[in-house]
Structures are given as structure tokens and as C-alpha cells.
Amino acid sequence: MKKVDVKSAEQELISKLIFNTITPRPIAWVTTLNENGTVNLAPFSFYNAITTKPPLIFISIGKRKDGSEKDTARNIRRTGEFAINVVTEKFIEQMIESGKDFPPEESEIEKLKIETSPSQIVSPPFIKDVPAALECKTKEILELGSTPMSVIIGEVVYIHYTEDSLSSQKGIIGRLGGKRYTIIEKEITPI
Ligand SMILES: Cc1cc2nc3c(=O)[nH]c(=O)nc-3n(C[C@H](O)[C@H](O)[C@H](O)COP(=O)(O)O)c2cc1C
Hints:
4 helices, three-stranded antiparallel sheet, alpha+beta, binds flavin mononucleotide, Pnp Oxidase, Chain A
């Protein structure tokens, strides 16, 4: 087995190890409102639950190569609101496309022909036909790391879900290392 001391290792290797060892990661497919009122959509896999009472989640958003803020982070900073959509197999291509760079005034929702439903509390809509969507309000934003990354801590204020989503998570997509993904196909319930 190989070993590496983080203090003296190349950053490229550290990043590669983090991406390939902390896996599979859930994907937050996040809808926010752009300044011109259109809907922005992008996937983030540095995402997870923090607490259930109150329900808090985090999403960690890096900067673009030119150092500018990604649209999702900027929109969340401005509006304090976002929705997280659970990604299933049928959305995988649109989800990957939505992770490419779109100009801030252009809506991924319109370009990718994705249908939305109005949210109950927050302004950004959620995606129609996902098994679950979490409406969130920003609780805190931390700037961590040397890049730095914006760690958005959000409070879930409203949840949309299908009855089936409570008994099985089959079909949900997870992020692996590199550009690889996994689809939940097998679930086990140890006795
Ligand atoms: C599956 C997947 C997961 C991603 N996870 C993250 C992430 O956790 N943090 C991040 O900053 N970017 C992540 N990205 C890249 C962003 O989605 C990408 O930079 C996107 O263009 C940001 O869009 P925006 O400018 O509309 O916010 C991910 C991309 C994909 C396809």
C-alpha cells in the first residue's frame, strides 16, 4: 500500500486522493435565481447533511479558473435561497451539461429544456419529476481553504418528495473519482 504525508505532497495528488477516496458523493443539483430572474442550475458533489434538527446541509463551492465566483455561489450570497434537486439516472446527461460553463445571464434550465415546478417558500423553483427536492435558506457561509472555497450552510425549510423515495433510493446518481459516476442498483438491509 502506498502512503503520503500531506505536508510534503503535491497538491494535485492530494486532490486526486480526496476525489477518489471520499466516494460515492451525493450530488446536489442546485437551482438559484440569476440577477435577471432566470433560473440557474448546477451540480455540486461536495455536499452532505450536517444535522436533522434543524435540518442543515452544506455545499462547498470553489472558484472558476479565472478566480471569479460561480453563479450558484453568487446567487446564493445575493438571495439567501436555493433548492437542491436529487439526481436520478434519467437526468444524468442534463446534470453533466449543467456543470459546464454557461454565461451568468443564460439559464441552464431553458437551454437544457428542463421543466420546473414552483417552490413553496423559496423563490428558485425545483425540477419536475425528481424523487425529492429540498428548499433551503442560507444559514452561514464560510470561506475555507487557500483558494478559498465557499462552504454554504443551508437550512432546509420545505421538502418535496415521492412516497417511493422513502423506501428505495434506486436510480439515484453518485459521484466517483475522476469523471465517473455510480447509479444505485443494489440495496442491502443487513439483519
Ligand atoms: C457531478 C459534478 C459535481 C460537481 N461538484 C462540484 C463541487 O462540489 N464544487 C464545485 O465548486 N464545483 C463542482 N462541480 C462543477 C460545477 O458544477 C461547475 O463549475 C458549474 O459550471 C458551476 O455552475 P454555476 O456557475 O452556474 O454555479 C461539479 C460538477 C459536476 C458535473
